[in-house]
Amino acid sequence: MKAICFYFQIHQPFRLKRYRFFDIGNDHYYYDDFANDDIITRVAHNSYIPAAESLLRMIEETKGAFKCALSISGVALEQCEQYVPEFVDLLRKLAKTGSCEFLAETYDHSLASLTDPEEFRIQVDLHREKIHSLLGVTPKVFRNTELIYSDELAPQILDMGFKGCITEGAKHILGWKSPNYVYSAASAPKLKLLLKNDKLSDDISTRFSDTSWNEYPLTADKYISWIADTPQEEQIFNLFMNLETFGGFQQRETGIFQFLEALPRFAAERGVQFVTPSEAIKLFKPVAELSIVHPISWTDEARDTSAWLGNRLQNEAFDKLYSVAERVRLCDNRMLKQDWGRIQSADHFYYMSTKHFADGSAHANFSPYETPYQAFTNYMNVLSDFIVRVEDQYPMSVDNEELNGLLTTIRNQAEEIATLQKEVNSYRTDLEHFNEEHLLRQKAEAAAPAEKKPAKKAEKKAEKAEKKPAAKKAAKAPAKKAAAKTTAPETPAEA
């Protein structure tokens, strides 16, 4: 039986306000609250909410036969909680169905996996905790920011407890191979890989409303027939796209929602089922190991990381950002750490892209800046102020090794103090117990004589009580004997 694995991404960054050079050191708030409120509210009502409602209806109408997966970044969740809480309620309903799986990712939609393994792990753990606390489920399958993946990442993903990872079925990686199978990671064979079917995914996300497309209009029965008519051995079709496809990139007027909701009916007619990513890696065995030496993604024609790190502007900003990573992790300033996460979002680097042609137009459509250079300047101003705040915590005059040494010493001393404190508390507890036992002993000893005196009195009374009846008996006995003596002589005289 063939199976479809749907995955939908939900992400919105915290967009930065216009931040001038003269704001550095004076203004520590970096975000355009108006734009963030406006965009997340508009996108949620046009796309996220109606799409989630459609998914919920599909699950209910098919009694759980329709299944899918969602991945929502931590920063997007924060905005939804603040501006569109009704969408969060819909996510909870989807989670309760058991037919919608929620995936793990980096909390801030960052590129930390490319440069900082420790920060990468921290963000994944934060996201997992957020999903569990808000939606009541624990993610089991991982998807990295923009589906970024390489052999170098596989062991760490597996070590974090994930059994599967989804990524792009890039043509330059697969070659003659098909994405319609489950693969295993070459550097961590226990980690299963689900690869995006690029053509079938883009047929929905980008070509659905394209009137010049030779397959236009795309109907649900036609789409399912393409899947059902593939070779028998190809069994899993991974359809990965942004949830904003429905109602956003493809407007409601195109019939995109009707198309989506009709898929389960035609799939059932052709014997095609729906599975979640966790079910896919359980149902289908890997056919081969897949090695991906250089990082891939699902963005731009090259399907690499050049969308974010493809020019000198992006690389300079990226290197400067992560140069203070260790110092930020050492501090306890909550606001500093919150800003640290938000300015890591990959979107900020995406806006700095200087690509041309189709890739360039895509970047320009999403960017709130007029030019990549404006995006770079604005970001570097924000980053400069952020670094000033980091320096206030840990001056740059102290190098990282020296700082680590000092902090290690402080940490060791703190641990030693904590250990000694535990010992003191233990001794104090023992002393308190000893004093309590001593007081109880004293009370018992003081009460003992008082208990003995009443006992002696009782014994004396008992002895007196026993003696009195015995005296009476002794008095009565001689009287009887005396009476016998007086009557005895009279009997012979009468005789």
Provide keyphrases for this structure:
495 residues; alpha/beta; 7-stranded beta/alpha barrel; 5-stranded parallel sheet; 19 helices; globular; disordered C terminus
What is the subunit arrangement here? single chain
CATH topology of the domain at 2-305: 7-stranded beta/alpha barrel
C-alpha termini separation: 139 Å
Which regions are unreliable across 5 or more consecutive residues at pLDDT < 50? 469-495
Structure overview:
This protein has helices at residues 33-61, 74-83, 85-97, 117-135, 154-159, 171-174, 198-205, 220-228, 256-269, 277-283, 306-309, 312-322, 325-330, 334-342, 346-350, 357-366, 372-393, 400-487, 490-494; strands at residues 2-10, 68-72, 100-102, 141-143, 164-168, 182-185, 192-196, 236-242, 272-274, 289-290. The protein is an alpha/beta fold. The chain has a domain at 2-305: 7-stranded beta/alpha barrel. Helix 1 (33-61) packs across helix 2, helix 1 runs parallel beside helix 9 and helix 8 crosses helix 9 (256-269). The longest helix has 88 residues, at 400-487. Residues 469-495 have low confidence and may be disordered.
Q: Secondary-structure map with pairings?
A:
Elements: E1 2-10, H1 33-61, E2 68-72, H2 74-83, H3 85-97, E3 100-102, H4 117-135, E4 141-143, H5 154-159, E5 164-168, H6 171-174, E6 182-185, E7 192-196, H7 198-205, H8 220-228, E8 236-242, H9 256-269, E9 272-274, H10 277-283, E10 289-290, H11 306-309, H12 312-322, H13 325-330, H14 334-342, H15 346-350, H16 357-366, H17 372-393, H18 400-487, H19 490-494
Parallel strand pairs: 1-2, 1-8, 1-9, 2-3, 4-5, 5-7, 6-10
Antiparallel strand pairs: 6-7
Helix pairs in contact: 1-2, 1-3, 1-9, 2-3, 8-9, 12-17
